[in-house]
Amino acid sequence: MPEASKALGNLRGVLILLILAFHSVSAYIVSQPAHALSLDQAPYDWRAFPIIDDERWLGFDLFCAFQFLYLMQLMFFLSGLFVWPSLRRKGAGGFLRYRILRLGVPFLLGVYLLMPITYDPVYRATAVDPSWSAFWTHWRALPLTPTGPMWFLWFLIALNIVAALLFRLFPTVGHRIAPLLAKAATHPWRFFVFLSAVTAAAYLPLSAIYSPWRWVGWGPFEVQAAFAPQYAIYFLVGVAVGAHGYDRGLLDPHGVLVRRWPVWTVVSFLSFILWVVPTALIVKGQGASIPGLSVIGDLGLVLFAAAACFAMLAIFMRFAATRWRIMDTISDNAYGIYFFHYTFVLWLQFALLGLAMLAIGKGLLVFIGTVVLSWAASIVASRIAAGARPLIGRGAVLLGTPSSRA
Length: 406
Prior knowledge:
Strand order of the largest sheet: 1-2
Number of domains: 1
Number of strands: 2
Shape: globular
Number of helices: 16
Largest sheet: 2 strands, antiparallel
């Protein structure tokens, strides 16, 4: 197996664990609302803060903020990385049929079967009558369709359709961009500036209208308004890099980007500070007298997202280009783990509400429990029947994989 393939597989597994960690500790951040939010209470902010615990730790705020600003961008980049080779093998029609089956059926099952079970503890946290029948009555009366993490699936389908259309209309575009990406490989700083500029142009106007946690859409087809263009851009960049070859160019294990991993690590932390300081001042109400402070914070956000993605790719290409057995298993089950994890997160957080324990301990318990239970659920689901495998079993259409048949 090529070095790049091993490194990207390990990165995929680590990203899934970071997603689980992010959701596991979100009930214990200081910036949570003071009290649990009712399921019936508009504007239904419980979608962002489903379980609220009295125990808090500021360290979890910093961890969640750090992950929130780049994690989904990197996920979409990896999701696009193997799209173009798959289109070449299957053609646009075959590619879309497989992806819609692989992503669409789990999306429907997740939204209409798993999410009611997942959000039941949110209702129970404030309910007078905690019975399932009472919950179901309240759930059906909601003027929205909560999707939880399942939003990623429908948005990924939409982006795959865009990629298939590009392939159908411009089948040779992959060859045309090869020289550009070859230059980017030797000048990653120029590529970083280009990516940051494009994402800034897409994000800054929307950030003036929508908060980072504001969702827009229709029915179950919701997405974060301010971040959606960023996600699409990173996906298309991943498609372009994959069309050139994931094991060469920008992601060459011996290329310039990988050799300068310390620089990208430092840049990512500096740009995070460029975001967190203005944001903290604005939240505390101390930034009104500083003109342009919100714009500085927004620029810090897009710079951090790009730098953190470059740093993660460079670090894993440099140090994780060997086989990690446990990460192989997590990576193979990444899709299933993602599909099931949120259910276990919310129920475990709910179960720990009355426990006298520090926030750090609760966060670790929820994380460990979620990893074990969602991992086991993924393995069991893939073995129940042969039909479960194309839906939520092994493979990683969710995040892409060099060994994927997609």
